[in-house]
Amino acid sequence: MSPFDAGSMQTALLPVVAPATEHPIQSAVEASDRAPVARYLISDLCTYLETYLPPEQVSEFYRAYLFGAEAHEGQSRKSGEPYIYHPVAVARILAEMHMDYKCLIAALLHDVIEDTPVEKEQVAEVFDEEIADLVDGVSKLSQIEFESRAEAQAASLQKMLLAMTRDIRVILIKLADRLHNMRTLGSMHPDACRRISRETLDIFAPIANRLGINRVRVELEELGFLHHWPWRRHVIQRALQKTCGARVEMVGTVETALKQALHQEEIHGEVDGRRKHLYGIYRKMREKRRAFSEVVDVFAFRVTVDRVDTCYRVLGLVHNLYKPVPGRFKDYIAIPKANGYQSLHTVLIGPQGIHIEIQIRTEDMQRMAESGIAAHWLYKSGEQSTAKATTLASEWLQNLLVMQRAAGNSVEFLDHVKIDLFPDEVYVFTPKGRILTLKRGATVIDFAYAIHSDVGNTCVAARIDRRMVSLSTHLRSGQTVEIINAPGAKPNAAWLNFVVTGKARASIRGYLKNLKQREAQVLGRRLLSAELGTFGVDLDSLDPVRVAAYLEEANQRTLDDLLGDIGLGNRLAAFVARRLAGGDDDEATQAMQADKNLHPHRLAIRGTEGMVVSFARCCRPIPGDTIAALFSPGRGIVVHRSECRNLGSLETKRDKRLDVEWANEPDGEFPTEIRVEIGNRRGALAIVAGAIAELGSNIENVHSREKDGMTTALEFLILVKGRVHLARIMRRLRQIPLVLRITRVPR
């Protein structure tokens, strides 16, 4: 006998949520306007579970209910009702998806770790590790102190999303939890309502859409719209009611015409007419900057048939019935959306010239459109569409792992996820015919990273439809893209200015951070070796015990981490060398106060140090200039010309000062600025630029400023190899008759 069959137990069972309806997930309008309804007992939920779960699993579910009710004893929600109402309501939403019993138990217990003294280990002991992991995945990070609410929110969402990559049921529980919270949001303070609604619209509704769970997504959007922009929703709702009132007859006419056309061709199908939901209309108005009167296709009709080939027959019927709008047909059957959604979409010019959207799909596609990844549990069909959605969801989850590894912190990770959650898509092909779905506005670089991170990192060029293009070229649906790679290539920081996908942005940033860290370690080794040389000590011959002790004291895991810290300017090499060579704290302090000008060891600047050595823009030092350098925490070394005004007095910056000099043969080209005053004459700029190019210098930028009616000042940012190269360029320019004066900027 299952526990809810005992009549004596009814008095112990708490009422929890409203009774089930034919469509359990109600629209936001119905949810906000309906009157209070009678609640039902936990036994009602158990009775519902018996329709698809064996009795022993239902009994285990009821045991979890008693465990959760005891854990939440004495707690209540903002509305005043016992807290246990909420987890049971969450379990009810998941039961309607026919989730397995462990997922339902985790839904009942999803707040016990976060809001009660119950620990994860206790849940694992009473139930099992799988359920405990699900509960922990949904729980927020409440034991860690964060500097801001945004950081705490991002860290908790990161924890949940990473748990989702291990078990997709984590996000299904969280979506059900958020859905019930949104249904009962009216009891919260208005500021909290807006904050929670904004988070729902930015994160949870897009996740539901990404997983193809359309029913949940629509209600989350409607409820978020209701609580975040109530007045905007009210205005659109009134306008829509007026429109619908005037066009009820038109909707009936179109629906009847579609049914008759199907009947005449002996096609069995169902026709369903509906209006688009309010948030969808609002988002279209905002994104396309249109007034409500300009959003004409607010009516949609869905035709559901039995087979895929019938869908295309119906498409021909509706195009014969009403004239299609050019460019508004989309075949999501041949090329499904990123979440597995399949359907034919076409926009027609209906009666009275009103645009109407027709969606044509099979019954299996309709189930997938409503339930998405949840259809795997809801129907247990093993159909190709369900398997496809599961595969696409797995690919997205793998992308989340890539973004997490590349992100510097939880806030950056969440930014990447937000970018990835709004894929207004384009569909492009690899040379072998594989279809890739990318966000609209995606570039060649986004495509390369969508294939694999290594392909993106070593990308140097690309062909679109066999024609060479730049890496920043935006992609259009239907194009075939071929990536050209080179073994020694690496990402360019400038790519961040035009990539749009979260995976590409996270991968580029992650690579550049690692590259900077490696360069910092090389520089740190050079700095520390130079300082140790004054003590007659070699870095490789240091006492391992002393090194390990200092690493522990400095809170560094490895010597490479310590060297990277030195290279980035976060730690002075003189201090570290003194400690590692055997000096004490007093001696280290004296070393800091010593006259660094007497230090015989200077760091040689080669120009190949990478991102950890930068050249000040204020004075643009080049080889041959007398230079000085300062440590900039987090950036490394910033090199100035010795006479630079911004360098200030080195006497006041001894703790940051570093003695540097140019290497014997610096490598690379260095930017510098020159000002050329010329007489006004047509073609003068071309003459000067040509002379600069003759001597092997590249012009990075040029700015012109007319001084008077007779002369113009041209300021060039050019790349040179050193002072000798710059002198040759200036000498050549002085030979041009038009040139009146040449100076280096700043002087």
Folded structure, characterized:
By secondary structure, the chain is an alpha+beta fold. It folds into 5 domains: 42-228, Orthogonal Bundle (Hypothetical protein af1432), CATH 1.10.3210; 240-376, Beta Polymerase, domain 2 (2-Layer Sandwich), CATH 3.30.460; 511-581; 605-662, no CATH class; 670-744, ACT domain (Alpha-Beta Plaits), CATH 3.30.70.260. The strands form 7 sheets. Strands 3, 4, 5, 6, 7 and 8 form a 6-stranded mixed sheet that branches. Strands 15-17-16-18 form a 4-stranded mixed sheet, with no helix packed on it. A hairpin with a 3-residue loop joins strand 16 (627-632) and strand 17 (636-641). The chain is globular, with a radius of gyration of 34 Å. 37% of the residues are buried. Residues 1-38, 141-147 and 585-600 have low confidence and may be disordered.
The helix content, as a percent range, equals: 40-55%
Query: Which radius of gyration do the C-alpha atoms yield?
Result: 34 Å
- Total count of domains: 5
**Which shape, going by the Cα principal axes?**
globular
Major pleated sheet: 6 strands, mixed
CATH class value of the largest domain: Mainly Alpha
Q: Can you name the CATH architecture of the largest domain?
A: Orthogonal Bundle
> What is the typical, i.e. mean, pLDDT?
77
Keywords: Hydrolase
Function: In eubacteria ppGpp (guanosine 3'-diphosphate 5'-diphosphate) is a mediator of the stringent response that coordinates a variety of cellular activities in response to changes in nutritional abundance.
Organism: Thiocapsa rosea
Catalytic activity: guanosine 3',5'-bis(diphosphate) + H2O = GDP + diphosphate + H(+)
